[in-house]
Amino acid sequence: MNTRNSSSPVIDDTTGDYATFARVQVDRWRDGQRETVDDVVAEEVPIALEYNGISHAVMMATPADLEDFALGFSLTEGILAAPGELYECEIVPGCEGVQVQMRIATERFVALKEKRRNLTGRTGCGLCGAETLEQAVRHPQAVRGGAVFSVEQVHAAFEQMQAGQHLQQATGATHAAAWMEASGRIVLVREDVGRHNALDKLIGALAEEETDFSQGAAIITSRASYEMVQKAATVGIGFIAAVSAPTALAIRLAEETDVTLLGFVRKQGHVVYARPHRLR
């Protein structure tokens, strides 16, 4: 299937779910030689998040695990304080994207309307549509307690995570966020074209299972931008390990919220940027 001229989300005929990748015909050049081959590319579609009938955000995302995404986004953006405040979540396909229609607790919806942003997301932007500086940088409460991990556990977790990155292996175009439980074992992986989306999907799936966020760590394949620290701290995750670098704002926020922050986690190496007391 060649999707070069199509922006509509594609339904997988065998499963009835949205396809997370497409096959396209490309011209590949190697050593000065051209060949026409089939390639696999990740899907990316607009996902409209609606609360009690009101559109709040449109995010570009991989159309998978959208219920997890909806709950995770709602929690990490402070729209909901607990998973039980999300009463219904319906995925509605459209011509140009997907609508995620949620019904939330009345008091939460009233609060949302008071601080509502008209937000249009991009895969690399968490600020679009913020109306004030206060909205742009939220300051979650400090994380209390938290599991302690060894250096060996952290490095092993990145290798475990790679085995669960099926869409990345097929396309080379997606980020992943994984959950390392207190034992050091990776128990869940979520993927998306957007790093924020992957983390939201992970948090949503964990929240649905009533996971204790203080008793594990988030392992991410992207840079550790301030949004990643902000989202993690909002739900009580006290340990983040990233394959790439953090930003200065992310480090300051991690210090403020008592989040252990590691970057450049590679074979036999890493850098501790904030709060090392959860690393032994």
CATH class of the domain at 151-278: Alpha Beta
Q: For the residues shown, what is the average pLDDT?
A: 90
- Sum up the overall morphology in one term: globular
- Radius of gyration over all CA atoms, rounded: 19 Å
Most strands sheet: 6 strands, mixed
CATH superfamily of the domain at 151-278: Cytidine Deaminase, domain 2
Q: What is the terminal separation in angstroms? A: 50 Å
Strand content: 25-35%
Spell the H/E element sequence.
EEEEHEEHEHHHEEHEHEHEE
Oligomer: single chain
Helix-and-strand structural type: alpha/beta
Q: Could you tell me the number of beta strands? A: 13
Unreliable spans are 1-5, 118-123
Give me the number of helical elements.
8
Would you write up a description of this structure?
There is one protein chain. The chain has a domain at 151-278: Cytidine Deaminase, domain 2. Helices cover 28% and strands 31% of the residues. It has 8 helices and 13 strands. Helix 7 (226-235) packs parallel to helix 8. Mean pLDDT is 90; it is low at 1-5 and 118-123.
